[in-house]
Design brief:
Elements (H helix, E strand, L loop, with lengths): L3 H8 L8 H19 L7 H7 L4 H4 L5 E3 H10 L4 E2 L3 E3 L5 E4 L5 E12 L2 E8 L13 H31 L2
Antiparallel strand pairs: 1-6, 2-3, 3-5, 4-5, 5-6
Helix pairs in contact: 2-6
Length: 172
Amino acid sequence: MTNFYKLQEVLNGDDVKLTAQQRLEILEAVREDWRRITHQHSVKTYEGWQESGLPSFEDYFFPGDKVDDDMVQYFVDSVPPVLMLSFCTQAGEPYSMEFDEKGVKRPTFATFHDLGGGYWQFDGYCFYKENTNRCTRKPRIEELIDGAKREAEKELINEDKRCHYSESEGLR
């Protein structure tokens, strides 16, 4: 990661307690690299995922991504699919439980549909026999950044309170 070197300059091998703002800045730099990694190929492959260093499928692949046959085959070989048609494949293990239109929780499955020519589209995490993504969670890096922003705001508020308190103490 290109921003890793910036981080090394800050830490320089020493143990340092980072402020919430510093953690936020580091996470934003990591997000920049993550976006570069996940958007560098027009067709995503199993090999590209492994080379990316990203730990999970959901860190590298997003609904709408074009993938190759090998990526779909990875799912077919890992766990028997719940649905395997010539034009649509759904991974055999549920990804999440989501509410349907009737308020009933149902399992979702990583779903791919055939585009032809050895390519597929990752449709997302869909209910059985459907191609509509039902799982709308943010990527992990975005959740971490949201948390870091909240921490940085709290830190700033507490710092303002300490400054205000110190100023009022000085007036006595």
